[in-house]
Design goal:
The complex is a heterodimer of chains A (about 230) and B (about 110). Chain A is mainly alpha-helical and about 230 residues long. Chain A contains four helices and two strands, in the order H-H-E-E-H-H. In chain A, helix 1 packs antiparallel against helix 3. Chain A is rod-shaped and about 150 Å long. Chain B is an alpha/beta fold. Chain B is about 45% helix and about 20% strand. Chain B is built from five helices and four strands; from the N terminus they run E-H-E-H-E-H-H-E-H. Chain B has a four-stranded parallel beta sheet with strand order 2-1-3-4, sandwiched between helices. The longest helix of chain B is centred in the C-terminal third of the chain and has 14 residues. The termini of chain B are far apart. Classes of the chains: A mainly alpha (about 230), B alpha/beta (about 110).
Chain lengths: ~230, ~110
């Protein structure tokens, strides 16, 4: 009930009515946006979860492979073998617009076109375990990139959903009821003003008629005449 | 053209060098913080970071999560999986939905 003071004028009333219309429309649109975002987010987050579990498992295996490979050869040899990588990965980033959230899309390019061209060392001084380890890490790279894309999208969407939800709630529970309250207040005030001016006019009319025709004097004179006749 | 960085302790990340990601072996917290900022403002679209190191840099990672790029992604290191990565996913579900509805039932 308690609210900011509003001027009870017709202009204010029109303004508020327009504001209410906009608020209701905005509320509907934002609610739709929120629902759609939520739907997309849930799809994405399920994928994210599955991907993450998969990637984490595979990284664990990779680490195991690398530890084994490292155990089979000297640290120096291992360092030398991996010091000058043959392969390089570049990312092209684009964006996809999902309900006004810009989510990233990664497209990766490798320097050499052959996917198997990953062994940056001669085979003479390295163990075969290292080949397996490097291969295993090369295999999960696409999944890791997809995970990056997915997880970043989830983060951005979660932020946007939170924001949108706040807006929807603010409109629904604060803005719209307050405006309706103000409109009601102004309409009642205006009606009240109209009634009071009506009453004032009637009163003034009475007074003016009284002034012109002296009804009350005539009435009392008439009353005196009646009394005399009765006697 | 963006590149991909991997941060963490040396043993966890040197393998990624072979496939063309750029490894940045770091264990010192302050150094890692400076490096993360440098990489994020540089030409890196994705930064993989080990969970162990990420635990020390939560504030920075939180800050960068609001930006479109780079994507900072946690990966388990050699010392094992701490579950922090999945927790981050869980947190974003909680942020969006209000309560966790994906991880709750399993």
């Amino acid at each position: 009930m308690a609210q900011a003071h509003v001027n009870p004028t017709r202009m204010e009333l029109t303004k508020l009515k327009n504001k209410l219309k906009t608020a209701i429309r905005g509320h509907k649109l934002l609610k739709d946006k929120r629902d759609e975002l939520m739907r997309q987010f849930l799809i994405l987050v399920r994928e994210n979860k599955a991907l993450r579990e998969k990637v984490e498992n595979e990284i664990k295996n990779c680490n195991k492979n690398f530890v084994l490979a490292g155990a089979g050869m000297s640290t120096e040899a291992l360092n030398v073998a991996l010091m000058a990588p043959k392969q390089e990965v570049y990312l092209e980033t684009g964006t996809k617009n999902v309900m006004s959230v810009e989510i990233p899309v990664f497209e990766y390019k490798t320097r050499t076109s052959d996917n198997n061209d990953i062994y940056s060392y001669g085979l003479a001084f390295t163990s075969s375990d290292l080949d397996g380890a490097v291969k295993s890490i090369a295999d999960i790279l696409p999944d890791m990139l997809r995970l990056a894309e997915c997880e970043k999208s989830c983060q951005l969407m979660a932020k946007e959903i939170e924001k949108t939800r706040r807006r929807v709630n603010a409109l629904e529970h604060v803005m719209i009821p307050q405006t309706q309250e103000s409109i009601k207040f102004i309409t009642m005030k205006l009606d009240e003003n109209e009634r009071s001016s009506q009453v004032r006019l009637m009163k003034v009319k009475d007074m003016m008629l009284e002034e012109a025709h002296h009804y009350s004097e005539k009435d009392s004179a008439g009353a005196v005449k009646v009394e005399v006749e009765a006697l | 053209m963006y590149k991909i960085a991997v941060m963490g302790d040396r043993d966890s990340i040197y393998g990624f060098a072979a496939v063309g990601l750029e490894p940045f072996p770091i264990t010192n917290e302050d150094e890692a913080r400076a490096k993360l900022r440098e990489l994020a403002d540089g030409n890196y679209a994705v930064i993989y970071i080990t969970e162990a190191l990420a635990a020390k840099l939560e504030k920075e990672i939180e800050y960068f999560s609001e930006r479109r790029l780079p994507a900072i992604i946690l990966i388990p290191g050699v010392s094992g999986n701490t579950g922090k990565g999945l927790q981050a996913v869980k947190r974003s579900v909680e942020q969006a939905v209000g309560s966790d509805i994906i991880f709750g039932n399993d």
